[in-house]
Design goal:
This protein is an alpha+beta fold. The protein has one domain. The chain contains two helices and seven strands. The chain has a seven-stranded mixed β-sheet with strand order 1-2-3-4-5-6-7. The N terminus is likely disordered.
Length: 150
């Protein structure tokens, strides 16, 4: 397991090398998310939703093509859990980064570093503060669901 603090890095340069970021929209949608963006690293690309509260940020990594539109939520609904979440939470002069990422998608350190860089670029304060982190990699083994049919 990697244990290295990320504070005081020039994350904008790191992110430009490690992951490409493109804005899709920067306004609040009907569903209440603050913005959506595209995350890309090497051959992998997915959608993200970014939620803000003061300086804190939560990023959800997912595939928007697997989500139903409002009109499609009638009977049988398959809810896709996405690829994970990262949360950057400020505490005084430091920040804590935590989250869960799907091990099948974020399969190596460089993919995880790109996700970390992605959230740090979204927060201009992050490059000036000490930021320890703990990110759990998960592997889906089973699930529980209610989908309207049974």
């Amino acid at each position: 397991m990697r244990l290295k603090p990320l504070g005081f890095l020039d994350t904008r340069t790191l992110c430009e090398r490690e992951a490409r970021i493109s804005f899709k929209t920067d306004k609040k949608s009907k569903r209440g998310r603050d913005s959506t963006m595209k995350f890309s690293h090497k051959k992998f690309s997915c959608d993200t939703e970014i939620y803000y509260k003061d300086k804190d940020i939560i990023v959800r990594f997912f595939d928007s093509s697997k989500e139903q539109e409002e009109d499609d939520i009638i009977n049988l609904v398959i809810v896709d859990p996405g690829y994970g979440y990262l949360c950057l939470k400020y505490k005084g002069d430091a920040a804590l980064l935590s989250g869960f990422l799907d091990e099948d998608v974020f399969s190596s350190d460089d993919y995880i570093d790109a996700a970390i860089s992605f959230i740090e670029v979204l927060s201009p304060n992050s490059k000036y503060v000490y930021t320890p982190y703990h990110i759990t990699l998960f592997k889906q083994t089973s699930f529980i669901e209610y989908n309207g049919e049974y």
